[in-house]
Design goal:
Blueprint lengths: L3 E5 L3 H13 L3 E5 L2 H10 L4 E5 L7 H5 L7 E5 L4 H9 L4 E4 L4 H18 L3 E3 L2 E4 L4 E4 L2 E4 L2 H12 L5 E2 H8 L8 H19 L4 E4 L3 E4 L1
Parallel strand pairs: 1-2, 1-3, 3-4, 4-5
Antiparallel strand pairs: 6-7, 7-8, 8-9, 10-12, 11-12
Helix pairs in contact: 6-8
Length: 218
């Protein structure tokens, strides 16, 4: 799976044009056509970068910007005044391009933001757990807990959206690239082993089962 870019743009022509160009460059693309839809999507999934229009139906781009939670954002807007740009950059946008824009320049700016963005999201933290990438280690209450590939993928998926209930089916989708052999039956075993490892490290419960639906961080 490639890096995922969320396009938040209500103009279908521009959205299609961006989507086509990004897919050609090997990116996975998600699309939202209103600010409200974008925020709902961000509650479920964390893209690697957001291309954000400002003039949106429902919730404005400025309001969406407040809910992007550290994901790099390039604003695409017809507003070209310097004070508009400065205000948005101060409010959390990482870059700003005025419409109409060159697709080559946009791709270059996306590459810059993704290079900058990756170290920022190197480790995930929740309560007293820090998940260290590449080493498949979780530091729990200052103790190192070594995880299997599947356990690491499960914990990473849950910690990426700690307030969301993730269904078993969705969890299997999220971890499928890392652990293609995991099935609904084996998921129970991996989840049980993971919960025990975390509990043994600090005597706390970190993952809760939501009966009949799936799992979430406790």
């Amino acid at each position: 799976m490639g890096q995922m870019i969320l396009i938040v743009e209500d103009d279908l022509f521009i959205s299609d044009m961006l989507c086509e160009a990004l897919v050609k460059e090997g990116f996975d693309v998600a699309r939202a056509f209103s600010g409200t839809e974008a925020v709902m999507m961000l509650e479920k999934e964390r893209p690697d970068l957001i291309l954000l229009d400002l003039m949106l139906p429902g919730m404005s781009g400025e309001e969406v910007l407040k809910k992007t939670d550290g994901v790099p954002v390039i604003v695409l807007s017809a507003k070209s005044r310097t004070n508009d740009k400065v205000k948005l950059l101060l409010e959390g946008a990482d870059d700003y391009m005025t419409k109409p824009f060159s697709m080559d320049e946009l791709m270059a700016r996306i590459a810059v933001q993704l290079r900058r963005g990756s170290p920022r999201r190197e480790s995930l933290e929740y309560r007293d757990i820090t998940l260290i990438p590449d080493t498949r280690t979780a530091v729990v209450a200052s103790k190192d807990v070594h995880l299997t590939r599947t356990e690491y993928a499960i914990l990473k998926s849950l910690m990426s959206s700690p307030n969301q209930v993730i269904t078993k089916t969705r969890l299997l989708e999220l971890i499928s690239d890392d652990t293609p052999d995991c099935t609904e039956n084996t998921l129970k075993v991996h989840m049980s082993n993971l919960r025990k490892k975390l509990r043994d490290a600090s005597r706390n419960e970190y993952i809760e089962s939501v009966w009949g639906i799936g799992f979430k961080m406790a």
